[in-house]
Amino acid sequence: MTKPLNIGMIGYGFMGRAHTNAYAKVNHFFDLEYRPVLKAVCARDAAKAQAFADNWGYESIETDWRALIARDDIDAVDICTPNNLHREIAIAAARAGKMILCEKPLSMNVAEGEEMCREVEKAGVANTVWYNYRRVPAVSLAKQMIEEGRLGRIFHYRAVFLQDWTISADLPQGGQALWRLDAAAAGSGVTGDLLAHCIDTALWLNGGIDNVTAMTETFIKERVHTATGQKQKVEIDDACAFLARFRNGALATFESTRYARGHKALYTLEINGEKGSLRWDLHDLHRLEYFDYANESRYRGWRSIHITDGDHPYMKHWWVPGLQIGYEHSFVHHVADFLADLAAGRPTGPTFRDALETQKVCDAVLDSARSGRWVSIT
Ligand code: SOE
């Protein structure tokens, strides 16, 4: 018999669907002590919340997140709201003794993130942040290979995350999905939305970052705000590029933009070490490219590992060798790990504390772009 874990989800956009799909699927594929129960979904618009609940199988709805948190039948709160609400909801949930699964980025800035960490740690509640790309099996395999020492000393880390969906000047700021263009709701632009993913993966694979120097640009200076109907200054970064030095001595470049015409969500990373290199591409997410310098020179070259075998991370839970999985499975893996860790009494990374490290790098990047100086991560 599995133990129920009652989920209360706040927000129901793109991430609400990704998380709910993961809760619904996880026990069909993973043998776990706990089973998520879709107890309640919360959104301000009752009709929309009800439609979401009916479609996905939530038992009930709330229109006020405080009412959801106050319910005795909710064990874990899933925060899928715009970034400016993460802090207030997470603190209230922690004080009510609820576990928290928070969408990325953790917070609007480091100060908020520190407060959130203090609160969840004081309350002793399980907490995690949905940086899902860690749990794409190819990325998890990269982590295992680095830990096994297959790359040796790391010299370089290179990551890009390119999109093109905000090029039109007619796109407003604010409102559903487009809150990502509104600094008051999002905190920042590509730095918090896209580079935060690259930074989380990088810190996980290659350790801490010492310092950064960055540049940002806002190409469209004014957009209509959906709240006022008026043109307002755009305060987010449309593009950001930065250099970083890792604590292990590696040099890194990171670049992200929503103005790379032709790229929808091109997240790529490459790591070059003394003994070998790895590279990964979200558009081909079931492959990990590996160059092993130990191979005989006549046959040396990049190999493309198809990550579908039972001995690849997470894959024994899915189909048979050769058959692929996709983007949504990274969220299923996150829930599976969260439930297994809960049963074992272990934290699930990235915890709020881990995600605070990513937030520190994001803040340093934006600070450096403003000042034109190198900024240290403290
Ligand atoms: C933005 O378009 C976005 O949806 C991000 O918010 C997600 O975190 C990223 O994984 C894909 O792109």
Explained architecture:
The protein is α/β, with parallel strands linked by helices and 378 residues long. The protein folds into 2 domains: 3-131, Rossmann fold (3-Layer(aba) Sandwich), CATH 3.40.50.720; 133-376, Dihydrodipicolinate Reductase, domain 2 (2-Layer Sandwich). Helices cover 33% and strands 26% of the residues. The protein contains 10 helices and 17 strands. The protein has helices at 14-29, 46-56, 65-70, 86-95, 110-123, 137-147, 183-186, 190-206, 328-344, 352-371, and strands at 3-10, 34-42, 60-62, 76-79, 99-102, 127-129, 154-162, 209-217, 222-224, 231-233, 239-246, 251-257, 266-273, 276-281, 287-292, 302-306, 375-376. Strands 16-15-14-13-7-12-11-8-17 form a 9-stranded mixed beta sheet. Strands 3-2-1-4-5-6 form a 6-stranded parallel beta sheet, sandwiched between helices. A hairpin with a 6-residue loop joins β9 (222-224) and β10. It is globular, with a radius of gyration of 21 Å. The mean pLDDT is 98. The structure holds alpha-L-sorbopyranose (SOE). Residues 163, 193, 197, 265 line the site of alpha-L-sorbopyranose.
